[in-house]
TrEMBL record:
Record-stated family: Belongs to the diaminopimelate epimerase family.
HAMAP family in UniProt: DAP_epimerase
Subcellular location: Cytoplasm
Upper taxonomic lineage: Bacteria, Pseudomonadati, Campylobacterota, Epsilonproteobacteria, Campylobacterales
Organism the protein comes from: Malaciobacter halophilus
UniProt name for this protein: Diaminopimelate epimerase
KW Acyltransferase (keyword) present: no
Main location: cytoplasm
Record GO terms (molecular function): diaminopimelate epimerase activity
Annotated GO biological process: lysine biosynthetic process via diaminopimelate
């Protein structure tokens, strides 16, 4: 089987396509393992679909299934276009619904799913939180200093709310984010739906404009846009290598 490794702003994925729609959780654990596998935050499998360019199956590195992955959609769209599986402007089916992505060289833009507010502002453990679903659930707290990121608190909140956990700093209308990712069970270098959740929170508080640059732990620049209540997520992706494993 041929596998391709992508990095989307530091959030990395193993991607392949197959005619077989089945549970790939075990493959995800094996392939995402950073010592004995290829190593990645997640596995993405493209399978045929009669109504869309393809359907995707997404797994976190612990083998758990997730409905959506913002960075994963950008990597997967680039993979699909590069392999002739979809046109540059494509529509594919995810666990969170239909996703539309557009590929222009190494820049990919994804139209995210409609955000759903789960729990508005609440205070817990000394931080003010906001819980929103941007394809998957995300807790967001805005802090003055990202050194306030607390991995053990993030892990506690992740299990209490079954959500990813984001600490965001806003400076000159730019957003800087650190994310503890569910299913990776640790901080990743970027989390697309997490950046979208932070953007939404900052936008609601009028701390950013309708278009904002967002910088995850990898420091790569991404752009989030809110237009007619729809969120668009744009940034570069990198194909790292392709390999065959028997
Ligand atoms: N870990 C997430 C899925 C991946 C989200 C993230 N990698 C992104 O780019 O949106 C979850 O289980 O909810």
């Amino acid at each position: 089987m041929t596998y391709t490794k992508y990095s989307a702003s530091g959030n990395d994925f193993v991607i392949f396509h197959s005619f077989t729609k089945k549970d790939y959780s075990k493959e995800a654990i094996k392939l995402c393992n950073r010592t004995e596998g290829i190593g990645a935050d997640g596995l993405i499998v493209l399978v045929p679909h009669k109504d869309y360019d393809f359907e995707w199956l997404f797994y976190n590195s612990d083998g758990s299934h997730a409905a959506m992955c913002g960075n994963g959609t950008r990597a997967c769209a680039h993979y699909a276009y590069s392999n002739g599986l979809a046109p540059s402007n494509m529509k594919f089916l995810t666990g969170a619904g239909t996703i539309e992505s557009t590929v222009e060289k190494d820049i990919v833009q994804t139209q995210l799913t409609k955000p759903i507010l789960i729990k508005d502002e609440f205070i817990q453990d000394g931080f003010t939180w906001y819980l929103v679903d941007t394809g998957v659930p995300h807790l967001v707290t805005i802090v003055e200093d990202l050194e306030k990121y607390d991995n053990s608190l993030a892990s506690k909140m992740r299990y209490e709310y079954n959500a990813n956990v984001n600490f965001a700093k806003i400076e000159d209308k730019k957003i800087y984010v650190r994310t503890y990712e569910r299913g990776v069970e640790g901080e990743t270098l970027a989390c697309g739906t997490g950046m979208a959740a932070c953007f939404l929170r900052a936008h609601n508080l009028r701390l950013v404009d309708d278009i904002a640059n967002v910088y995850p732990k990898s420091k790569e620049e991404l752009t989030l846009t809110k237009k007619d209540e729809i969120l668009y997520f744009k940034g570069a992706v990198k194909k790292i290598f392709t390999t065959s494993i028997n």
